[in-house]
Design goal:
Blueprint lengths: L1 E12 L5 E12 L4 E5 L6 H9 L6 E7 L9 E4 L11 H11 L4 H14 L15 H14 L4 E5 L7 H18 L2 E6 L2 H7 L2 E5 L6 E6 L14 H24 L3
Parallel strand pairs: 3-7, 3-8, 5-6, 6-7
Antiparallel strand pairs: 1-2, 1-4, 8-9
């Protein structure tokens, strides 16, 4: 599924009733099966942009299109959030089944599909555990299983691994890439981490400080599958350095403004 963002803008009133322009004249396209990372300084509107694509927020200007075959019973998007977004009163199995319930699947089919995705995420034996009984990495695996279980055309990810420790984060990045290699979903992946963006993505879209605009689109010239050994690859270093040069002044200005 291809995603087209055409001259999109977003403005809103903050708590003090002041007009805030979060995004302005943003245009780009994510190709079908592309892993596109979206990166920028704090407060640049990355998460807002995902909310617009997910249909959770209305755009103030411009339009968002999806191009490709739409299958009945298959949602256009599913979102994986930074803070896991699991219901604490539901088990891992029940959390994964949540999206399937919303699709109206019969109970037996929901249970079977949820179990299959739980096993794919290495969580077999933890189906009846509640979120507080799971580690951070395991909770995010449940979140990934829930998103993949509904088989969305486009997967939206909002800094999904930023709450994890460095070792778990690396493992989760590798697991996500393995899932993407198998499913080839279109992924829009928001992060503030340059190395993570370069390691994961086919292309990195760099946004300016607020109001967020597209500064550049950086193609990542690294082969797949990606491995840790590539972190020192000349193409990795060149891409990371180019992106840092693009956003350094933007990040410093955002910091002075107290962007969040």
């Amino acid at each position: 599924m291809k995603v087209i963002i055409d001259r999109v803008g977003k403005r809103y009133l903050d708590r003090r009733r002041r007009d805030v322009v979060a995004l302005e004249d943003v245009s780009f396209a994510a190709a079908s099966e592309e892993f596109l990372a979206i990166l920028g300084p704090s407060g640049c509107g990355k998460s807002t942009l995902l909310g617009l694509v997910a249909g959770l927020l209305p755009a103030s200007a411009g339009e968002i299109f999806f191009e490709g075959e739409r299958e009945a019973g298959r949602p256009l998007t599913a979102t994986v959030f930074q803070e896991f977004a699991l219901f604490p009163w539901r088990t891992a199995q029940a959390n994964v089944e949540l999206g399937l319930e919303e699709l109206g699947l019969p109970a037996a089919e929901r249970a079977a599909r949820a179990r299959r995705h739980i096993e794919q995420m290495g969580l077999r034996g933890f189906e009846d555990k509640y979120p507080h009984q799971l580690s951070g990495g395991m909770r995010q695996r449940v979140g990934l299983a829930r998103a993949f279980a509904v088989n969305p055309a486009v997967l939206l990810m909002d800094e999904p691994f930023s709450a994890l420790d460095a070792q778990t984060r690396t493992l989760m990045m590798e697991e996500l890439l393995a899932l993407w290699e198998r499913t080839r979903k279109t992924i829009l992946y928001v992060t503030h981490n340059i190395q993570e963006a370069v390691f994961m993505a086919d292309r990195v879209l760099v946004l300016s400080r607020r109001p967020g605009r597209v500064l550049d689109s950086v193609v990542i010239d690294l082969p797949r599958p990606r491995t840790e050994a590539m972190l020192g690859h000349p193409a990795f270093v060149r891409a990371a350095d180019r992106i840092w040069k693009l956003i350094r002044s933007q990040a410093e200005a955002a910091l002075l403004e107290g962007g969040a």
